[in-house]
Amino acid sequence: MGLAAGVATLALLAGPSLASAADTYVDDDTGNDSDPCTQAQPCKTVQQGIDTATAGATVFVDPDTYNENTVLSGGKSLRASDFALPTETALPIVEGGGGTGITVPVGGSAGLIEGLSVHGNTQSINLDGPATVRGNELPDSTGNGIAVIAPGSVIEGNKFNDPDATGAQTGVIASADAQILDNQFTSLHGGIAINNSSVVTVRGNDFAGSHPFMSTSGGGISVLGSRATVVDNTFHSPGAGISIAITGSESGNPTGITMRRNTITGYYGGVGMDDASLGVDMSGDVIANTTGGSALQVRSFTVPTDLTATNVSLVGNTTDIFVKDNQVTLDSVIVEDPIQITGAVNCTIRFSRGPTTTGTPCQTFQTSVPPSFANAGTGDLHLIGPAALIDHGNPAAPAAGILDVDGDPRVCDGDGDGALRRDIGADEIRTPASDDCVVPDTRIRRPRVNRARQRARIRFSADPGSTFECKLDRRPFRSCRSPKVYRNLHFGRHRLKVRATDSFGNEELDPTVRRFRVRPPR
Known about the structure:
By secondary structure, this protein is an all-beta fold. The two termini are 36 Å apart.
C-alpha cells in the first residue's frame, strides 16, 4: 500500500542543505530587505526573496505571517523551510488580504509552491502561468482557492476548506488544462470548477461535503464545455447539490466525462449531465444514498448525450437513473429502481441486475436477485453475495487498465470454480485461493546512504516474480531492480516511489513512498 499524499507538515519543510548558491531565504522575525537574502542574512519579505533569487532558484520561507501580494515568476520555487528555527512546525502564512496571496503572471512560469498557508479574498493563488502547487493549506472564508488560467499546472496534495461554511468559495477553478491530484476539499460551496474547453484530470481527491449559497446548491465538481477524467475520488456527506455536474457550452465545445472507481455517498444527487456531446463513460463507480436527486441524470435537449456504465453500483438512492432522449448502455451494473425515462430513449442492458427481467428494453435486466453488501447503509458496497451476482457479469475481458472500485483486478474467480469472470457491480469478489487477483504491495527497506559519495542503496520487495518501476523526486518512472543504487545525489531530502507488477500482470495502483535525506559529510 502506497503512502497517501498529505497536507504539508514539518516533513515537507525544506532544510538548508537543499539550497544552491542562487537560492534565497526569508524570515519575518530576523530578516532585513537590505540584506543579501542568504541563510545567514535573510531578507524580511517574500517578494524581496523572489526578486533577489535567480531564475530557477528556490525561495525558502521561514514560518511567520507575511502580509503580501507576491508575484512569482522566472521558474522560481517558493517553499516552506525551518532554516531559522529547526523546531518550528507551523506553516508560513502568505496573507493576501483583499487581493491574491501568490500570483504567477501572464507569460511567466513558476517551479514548485509547497508547504505554505495561503490566503486571499480574491483567490489564494492565481496561476496565469504554469506551476506545481503541492502540500499547501488554503483556508478561505471569502475568496476562491486556486485559479488555473494557463495550461500545464499540477495541483497536488493541498487542503482546501471554508472555516465558516458560508459564501461561494470554490477550491480550484480550472480554465486551462491541468492535473488536480490527491487534494482535500472540505465544506466549500464548490470543490472544482472546470470550464473554457479545458482538458483536466481529477484523481484521488476527497470531497467532504459542500454547502449552498443563495439560490445555488453547490457541489463537488462542475464541468462546463470541457472534458474531464475523474478517477479514484471520494465524495461523502454532508453534501448539498450534485457531486458531479456536466453541461455543454453554447459554443459547442466537446464536453464529457470519463469516470473510473469513484465513490459518491450522501450528496443530494450523484452525476448530472445535460447536452454533453461526449457523454458519460463510467466503470467501477459507486453512487449510494443520495438524499433527493438522481444517482445518474443524463438529459439531451439540443445535443445527444449518452450514458455508458460498466460494473457500476447504484444503491439506496432517491432515483437511480433518470434519462431524456438519449442512448443508455448498461453492462454488469447493479440498479435497484426502474429507469425513469422522458422522450425517446434507447436502452442496451447486458449481464446486469435490476428490478425487473421482462418488459421494454429499458426494463429488461438479466437478474432481479437482491444484492448483499457489507454495509449499504453507510455506503460500503463491497459485494458479499448472492451467487447470482458473483462471476455472472460480462464474460468478455475488460479493456486494459480497467479495475474494480478498490483498484483491484476486474476479473477474478469469485465462486471458486476455477474460471475467471467479472462480477456484477463495482466490486470484484475473489476467493482466498485466487492469488491472481491480489494487487502487489511493495515494501521498501531503510535506504543506506553514503554521505561522502552522495549515494543511496535501497532494497525493496513484493510478491515473488514481481517487476518494479522506480521514480526518484521529479524524474519519471523507470524500470528498476532491487537493490537500486542512486549516485551523485544532491544534499538534502529525496522521495522515492516504487510500484510493482506481479507475475499475473496486476499492477500496484498506489506506489509505495520512502523519504530519505543525504546530509553533507561532517
